[in-house]
Every structure is written in structure tokens, then in C-alpha cells.
Amino acid sequence: MYTAVAAVLLGLFSLPRTAAAGEPAPSAPPRGSAHMGMGVVAHDGRGGLPTRRSTQTEGVDVSSHQGDVAWPTLWNSGVRWAYVKATEGTYYTNPYHPQQYDGSYDIGMIRGAYHFATPDTSSGAAQADYFVDRGGDWSPDGWTLPGALDIEWNPYGDACYGKSQSAMVDWIHDFLDQYRARTGRDAVIYTATSWWKQCTGNYAGFASTNPLWIARYASTVGELPAGWGTYTMWQYTSTGPTVGDHDRFNGTVDRLRSLALG
Q1: The whole model's pTM is what?
Q2: C-alpha distances in angstroms, 119 versus 146, 153, 162, 220?
Q3: Residue 150 bears catalytic tag
Q4: What is the fold of 56-261?
Q5: Could you say which of 152, 186, 245, 247 is catalytic?
Q6: Annotated catalytic, 186?
Q7: Where does the chain show beta strands of DSSP type E?
Q8: What does the pLDDT look like over 12-68, one tens digit per residue?
């Protein structure tokens, strides 16, 4: 009997611990460490690289994972635009943002900032305010791209941040409405089609106002989220020839500057 009871107890204690509500999963990374595309490889996989096209313009996105970036190296490799992580939730600011954001501008790139959304920690409007106040603002100088909302798999827990599809759509609306109220611009939406389907029900209502930045590590962009007939930007790899994730703007540098100007 003792042996049987011991076996049961051992089995119970060896079960994986389930995170409490609002608590990161046991294997979750530290808060603040999320970055664009963190869940893309895990959920969508990695395919071949696309063929270069003269009508597309090479870019990168960076976060604190890249530290101080060698912008001259990126410029010499053909990169002409960049997005820099500014904030996450209402609790994290990228300490490398000044070097990354100002450094890309100083070398001649058109650059913007992005916010990693955590819809389970605070409202969309609160996160938009936090973002704008800490590097995500926009100015009509021709060098500043509208802020980007990075909305993707939750690296700290439930993929959809514990929200229903309709609640997720409401949260995104809240962020986008406040960002526009603060800056006068419609934010770019960065996402992956599979996440968008899973967590918003493939909502099509943002396509008429918000540029799409699609994440797909393959030779083609594949299916886009509902409503968007084309993409504005494409993150096509996390293992590019130089630092950061590599992206393409779907147009020439002149068109990119038009987006910056608004």
C-alpha cells in the first residue's frame, strides 16, 4: 500500500505546473524581452528566402536583443529603412532605443518605432499613450514612419492573451484609435495571418485604414489577413545576412517616403 500511495504522490508532484491567471507560463521569457516575430518560427515555420525585386526596399527591425547597432554596415548592405522597438505593455522601454532610432536616422534611413502589445496587462489606449510618450510619436518630416503595433503570439502565456476574438478586436481598436488621436496617423499593424485568424476571427475592419506589415518566413507572403488585398511591409526572415530581422517595403524609396509624410 505504501508503494502505491508513494507512486501516486510522485506522479502528482511531477505534473507540469499550470500558471495562475495573469502569471507567465513556467518557461516564459522575462517580461520586456519580446520582439517582432518571436512566435513566427514556432507557429508558422521557416521557408526559403524570396527573390529580390527592384520595386521593393530593404529594411530591418531591431530591439534590445541587437544592442548598439552598426548602422553603417546595414546601410552599406542596402538597408534603407528601420523599425525600432520602443515599448512593451506599460512596463518596458527599450534601453537601446536612442542609439537605434537616432543612429538609423543619422545614417540616412527612414525609420519608425514599434510597440509590442500585451493585451492582458492594460488597455489598448493606455499602451498607445505609453508608446507615444516613449518614442512612438510621429512627425511630418519625411523621415519618420507611423508607429507600428506588433500584435502576435503571447510569449508569456496564452497565445491570445486570454481574450475572446471580439475582445481582441476591441482592444486593437482601442489602441489604434488612441494612437491616431495622439499623432494624427493610422498605425501600421504587424501580425501573422495564422495568429490573426486564431485570435481575431480574421477580422477585416482595419484594412481600409491601417497599413499591413505581414510576418511570414517563406519565399512568398502567402495568404493575407482578411480585408487586405496587398501588404505594405513584409518581414521575410529572422536570419538575414546582417543584424536584426529583415523586411521589405512593397515599393520604392520614394513610396516609402510618401508613407512617412502621410
Answers
A1: 0.83
A2: 21, 11, 9, 29
A3: yes
A4: TIM Barrel (3.20.20)
A5: 152
A6: no
A7: 57-62, 81-88, 92-93, 110-116, 148-150, 188-191, 212-215, 233-237, 245-249
A8: 333 333 344 444 455 788 888 677 765 554 455 555 556 566 689 999 999 999 999
